[in-house]
Amino acid sequence: MPELPEVETTLKGVSKEILNKKIKSFVCREHKLRWPIPMDMHNFLKGKTFISAVRRGKYIILYLDKGAVLIHLGMSGKLRIFKGSVNPVKHEHWDINFTDGWNLRYTDTRKFGALLKTTKDPYEHKLIKSLGPEPLGNSFNGDYLFQKSRKKTKPIKNFIMDSKIVTGVGNIYANEALFMAGIRPTKKSGLVSKAKYQDLSQAIVETLKEAIEAGGTTLKDYSNANEAPGYFKKELKVYDRGGESCLVCKKDLKEIRQSNRSTVYCSNCQN
Predict the structure, then answer these.
(1) Count of CB atoms within 10 A of residue 69's CB?
(2) How far apart are CA 63 and CA 256, in angstroms?
(3) Half-sphere exposure (CA, 13 Å, Cβ side) for 240?
(4) How do residues 3-30 score in pLDDT, each as one tens digit?
(5) Where are the beta strands (DSSP E) in 127-246?
(6) Which of 158, 188, 180, 173 is closest to 239 using CA atoms?
(7) Which domains does the chain have, with CATH numbers?
(8) Which residues are catalytic?
(9) Partner residues linked to 121 by β-bridges
């Protein structure tokens, strides 16, 4: 599943070729994604221009000269840019075509992504408004996590993956940050000390920044807008390494399921 670093990498890749260009057309081959694509999307986009692009959590917001569109990559979505005519293949659900010949195409095998529109402030959209602070923003730190976690019994891994607490921390990077901070993923979030939350907040920031620099993590089918893979997989300490030796203490890493997601940790290094 594309997480914050993959979405950030995708955003940077597409922005270079889609901003300040007039939109020629919108072509939709599958309306039924996570939420139905509005039937009037072509009329909404035609003749307009994307003037800026930002990421909020795992959402990409493309601002138009009037209005905005929200894109979510879901479980397996990808955006790619290309010039000229390329016949679509299976699972390539929509295109935004520009007058200069460039195109933005969305591919999604599981059809769990989204393309929505708004004429109002996108930060007031119901899907965006409820999101917690950005982990790479100024308001995110250990004190914030500590205060939010008081009297909580939710496991710490589930806690930091709650988008209402902090947005954009997905399964891969939650595993990695908890290992870096030395916190067992199953520990109740309300029992984690303030000092450990300081370690964890720093670990989250460091892990995400390193992953962005590496272009994200490619495990199965992720690639960026230019179809290049992410290279952070080479840096993974625990995720996708269940049963292998811990890189620190050499004990076998344990793998369990939490909320139907894989959790890998070291029972010796993480308490």
Answers:
(1) 23
(2) 41
(3) 12
(4) 899 999 999 999 989 999 999 999 999 9
(5) none
(6) 173
(7) 4-129 (3.20.190.10), 142-265 (1.10.8.50)
(8) 2-3, 58, 261
(9) none
Question: Comparing C-alpha atoms, which of 143, 157, 123, 107 is closest to residue 265?
Answer: 157
Start-to-end Cα distance in the chain = 27
For tokens 């370690």, the residue is 199
- Token pair belonging to 71: 């894109």
Please state at what angle helix 4-18 crosses helix 194-213, rounded to 10 degrees.
40
Question: H or E element: which one contains 99?
Answer: none
Three-class SS state of 85: coil
pTM: 0.89
CA pair distance 153, 122, nearest whole angstrom: 33
Euclidean distance between CA atoms 265 and 125, whole angstroms: 37
Residue 257 near residue 244, CB atoms below 8 Å:
no
What is the torsion angle, in degrees rounded to the nearest 10, for the CA atoms of residue 9, residue 175, residue 1 and residue 139? -50
SS3 of residue 169 by DSSP: coil
